């Protein structure tokens, strides 16, 4: 039995449902951020973050900073790109636009490589772009929260290493880390930017950034000083290194309760082989996608090879909009999200299936949601005479 | 009876001890950041923040953003100062140095006006500086966490309005908001930067920035674009306005559990006349300072008019350093902080007396701490043969 107050099941693409133990960690009593007890927890949390990324390289570096996922974009843009340098944004929707704006804020010269809604980039298209200009960084959204499109981060990185080996590969993994396989070292990634509240299963408020030695080196050898203070890698690097070496250190007060909660969820996640976690997400995703097809709904992510495993964005039947369907879901205790991609926002809804809703055998969230979706759709069609 | 696990009493100048109800709010079940329930809570929390600052001006604007207090410096530096403009930092210790570095990161031309350790600036000294150059902003630390020096924010603001009326007065209130009186509108302040984990009594992870209409106007009419993305006033302003008007809005996911906790503590704080809160902090501070004097200890903040009411920084007897005394306190269940100001760090300790440790009549934290201090000092002197 959950110790949480009764509530509707949150099945949006983040925040997601949280485990009881994680929420209990949020209520941890006050601690000094530089006292041995907390220093140990923070240090262990950094080490657990390495496991989440299947990374053992000593030159790789995790950063855990109070902030939302968006702060990670500033960390990238203010430290890894200098004024006038080129950035290539593989744009699959809403978040590519915003990451591009962030890069421009710090002086990058941004090229947006767009795809039609619901499609991901072909490697040919990316190769062509890489051959036209020298890019300091390439950014790719792993799972586009606005469309459910899964980016080919492994394939794109291989391509980059072949065509433009020094270009830093920056992955926006806010909606993928914890539900999609990422082999950080093996795939030779440079940065993954993520946040606590999606498939990692910790309440929102932590910006999580994982960096390669190559990226840290770029930050440390840049010509101009970093473009930000709070989002400066130079300010945070010694802090993270000290905490992981069990030494207190101070730049800005860490969010002690959130770090405890992250420690709890990462301990749970890494207690089993992480491949199992990705397998379960894939199985459940396949089930959801089959059920959605059976209801006659089309996914926004049109290519089966490019569909996320932690969420499903589905077009509604012609004549229905999100406000016709979401209240019917809510009446049945289930919360889905409305559309976000502005070109199609009124035509689709999003179902997040990540974390405990997928991995905890004691929950029935996904089956309940699929039953609710079927009923709510049929009710909405009837109401509209469709 | 507290519902918290038994723990040593945290009496450092932040984070502080938290109320049970506040910690329970941290464990709130998952909610969508754009669903009506959370939108209402966030909106109310913004309105409660106005009360905390005794502010009723409709042009004043609170910002509540996932981050530490330090993020507020970026908000000021990236939005209110343009490259090459002058900033005057009234430096009373550690935090003036850092705020100055943050301002420089975004291109400000920084003048540091320093005082000897433990002293605050005279108005004459500030007036002279203001007459030498035109400053876009002046920053003043309200309570210097490293020394316990209380800045004269009311007097300095009056002076600025007389001598250089357009200069924006920016208060670093991280260690003062909630324990020191601030009449934001009446004193004509422009920005107060603070954080959740000190006298406001909410766990760390929220950057809280309160701005005047004058400051917002400067941000909106600047010639160059803002210097940061996550710390951009232009990006957050519509979000805060929408939430306070009970409309969902999205720029980056807010830390939903921390917002609940802030709502709980601000509801508690504003349930009684806020002047009572400041009176209690003053009374307890007077008691602490008298007890410290009775133990023969000198305060770092040498001028009785310039001593904070939420903390006391005290020099140890000659021959003792913090590691001689802090373990004796810990043995008695009390946690104080070591020194932070680098010129004197080995010579003093800091005692935070803020929030529930001061306001909750059911607790005995301060008396317990004073008794422990007396015993720990005497033990340490004996051990050293002093």
UniProtKB/TrEMBL annotation, chains A, B:
Xref: Gene3D superfamilies: Aspartate Aminotransferase, domain 1, Type I PLP-dependent aspartate aminotransferase-like (Major domain)
Name used for this protein in its record: alanine--glyoxylate transaminase
Signal peptide boundaries: none
InterPro entries named among the record's database cross-references: Aminotrans_V_dom, Aminotrans_V_PyrdxlP_BS, PyrdxlP-dep_Trfase, PyrdxlP-dep_Trfase_major, PyrdxlP-dep_Trfase_small, SP_NH2Trfase/AEP_transaminase
Modification type N6-(pyridoxal phosphate)lysine: residues: 198
UniProt GO MF annotations: alanine-glyoxylate transaminase activity; L-serine-pyruvate transaminase activity
A single GO BP: glycine biosynthetic process, by transamination of glyoxylate
EC id: 2.6.1.44
Family: Belongs to the class-V pyridoxal-phosphate-dependent aminotransferase family.
Assigned keywords, A-Z: Aminotransferase, Pyridoxal phosphate, Transferase
Organism: Penicillium angulare
Enzyme class: transferase
Cofactor: pyridoxal 5'-phosphate
Residues annotated as binding substrate: 350
Record GO cellular component, one term: peroxisome
Domain Aminotransferase class V: 67-341
């Amino acid at each position: 039995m959950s110790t949480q107050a009764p509530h509707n099941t949150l099945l949006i693409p983040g925040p997601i449902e949280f485990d009881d133990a994680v929420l209990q960690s949020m209520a941890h009593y006050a601690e000094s951020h530089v006292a041995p007890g907390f220093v140990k927890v923070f240090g262990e949390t950094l080490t657990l973050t390495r496991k989440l990324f299947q990374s053992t390289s000593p030159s790789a570096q995790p950063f855990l900073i109070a902030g939302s996922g968006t702060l990670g974009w500033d960390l990238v843009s203010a430290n890894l790109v200098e004024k006038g340098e080129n950035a290539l944004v593989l744009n699959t929707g809403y978040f590519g636009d915003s990451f591009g704006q962030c890069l421009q804020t710090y002086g990058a010269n941004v090229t947006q490589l767009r795809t039609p809604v619901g499609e991901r980039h072909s490697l040919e298209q990316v190769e062509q772009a890489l051959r036209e200009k020298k890019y300091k960084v390439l950014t790719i959204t792993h799972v586009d929260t606005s469309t459910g499109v899964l980016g080919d981060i492994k394939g794109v990185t291989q391509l980059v290493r072949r065509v433009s080996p020094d270009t830093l590969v920056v992955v926006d993994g806010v909606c993928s880390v914890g539900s999609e396989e990422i082999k950080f070292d093996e795939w030779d990634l440079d940065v993954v930017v993520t946040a606590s509240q999606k498939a990692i299963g910790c309440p929102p408020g932590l910006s999580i950034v994982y960096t390669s030695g190559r990226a840290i080196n770029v930050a440390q050898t840049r010509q101009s000083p970093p473009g930000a203070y709070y989002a400066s890698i130079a300010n945070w690097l010694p802090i993270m290194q000290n905490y992981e070496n069990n030494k207190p250190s101070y730049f800005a007060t860490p969010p002690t309760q959130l770090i405890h909660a992250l420690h709890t969820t990462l301990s749970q996640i890494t207690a089993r082989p992480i491949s199992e976690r990705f397998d379960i997400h894939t199985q459940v995703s396949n089930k959801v996608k089959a059920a959605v097809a059976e209801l006659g709904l089309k996914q926004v992510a049109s290519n089966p090879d490019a569909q996320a495993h932690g969420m499903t964005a589905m077009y509604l039947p012609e004549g229905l909009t999100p406000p016709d369907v979401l209240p019917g879901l809510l009446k049945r205790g289930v919360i889905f999200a409305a559309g976000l991609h502005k070109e199609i926002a009124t035509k689709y809804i999003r179902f997040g299936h990540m974390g405990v809703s997928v991995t905890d055998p004691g929950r029935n969230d996904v089956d309940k949601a699929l039953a609710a979706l079927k009923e709510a759709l049929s009710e909405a069609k009837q109401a509209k005479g469709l």
